[in-house]
User: What shape does this take?
Amino acid sequence: MIALSDLAVPIVGAPMAGGPTTDALVVAVSRAGGLGVLATAYRTPAQTAASVSAVRAAGVERFGANVFVPDDHAEHDADLASLSAYRDLLRTRISGVEPGVIAPRGRDGYDETLDVLLDAGVPWVSFTFGLPGRDVVDRLHAGDAAVVVTVTTASDARSAVERGADVVWVQGPEAGGHRSTFDVAAEPPTVPIEDLLADVRSAVDVPLIASGGVGDGRDVRRLLDRGAAAVGVGTALLLADEAGTSEPYRAALTDPGFDETVLTRAFSGRVARGLRNRFHDDLGDHAPARFPEVNTLTAPLRRAATAVGDPHGISLWAGTGHRGARTGPAAEIVADLWRSAQQG
Ligand SMILES: Cc1cc2nc3c(=O)[nH]c(=O)nc-3n(C[C@H](O)[C@H](O)[C@H](O)COP(=O)(O)O)c2cc1C
Assistant: This one.
């Protein structure tokens, strides 16, 4: 089983679904001595299988994959009215662009994707938005894969370890992208990552990954000093050469006009942190807490905005350390973070 203590560099390249994580980024982070993690969300099981093969074809065996656990709260099936009202708001935003349709909530290929990861023997699998079933944990352990669960509270960390997690990924409020609350409707806690890490440390006795707001090596050092076995970095890799971050997204990350990050449900229905833009300002107060339905509704609008290079119409996920994001090869970004972490 991959142990975080075996990494030459205790940095995990956070899974970033929706484009930024590419096979090349995973390969580069793992080759740099860290751990690259594939993002399987919004991708078909076949695409995930192809990514696993591509990473291996590049000679990398030590890597992970992340999956989104589907929402199993039956109460979220009701209330189509709020989704329909949100759809009406979205219809007026870009002339000629229809929002996606309100479809019954499915499992988004979760079971099939897990089968791909299990069949391929992916050695490290992380779960976001909930716990894997006991059977899934057992099957992964039978193949000697590490089971990792991303949490935002100490009590979820306890549940994860009770379920069989070998590693807990602690995600602070500073993190870019979606917060891994187990209930889509929950408002994620605001306890800063250092304090959350301490809370989780006293609740469970497994290695911890800390993530949220890392902009430079000092942030890495601070989290390692506070007991993390490794530090997860997402935003710091968004401008890497190998990242699949879209052009308008890259431009916004380096534009001094986008200087603030906010928590918003506007794009996906789940709370996520990103650079503040007009989509959030106009819609953030109206989006129902439903995922992935809201994500599906906004998809055609986001695609249209990306096509015309409009940063105000796309999700610009970014953590509070976004000013630290650098361009260049991912290997250099990881090496620089680690070098300055060791100095500081
Ligand atoms: C663009 C983007 C996409 C993300 N997608 C995922 C994902 O697919 N799965 C996941 O567990 N976390 C996802 N996250 C959260 C990261 O895994 C990680 O917790 C976060 O990036 C850490 O904070 P930082 O961005 O400040 O480094 C995403 C973050 C970003 C910025």
Q: What stands out?
A: The mean pLDDT is 96.
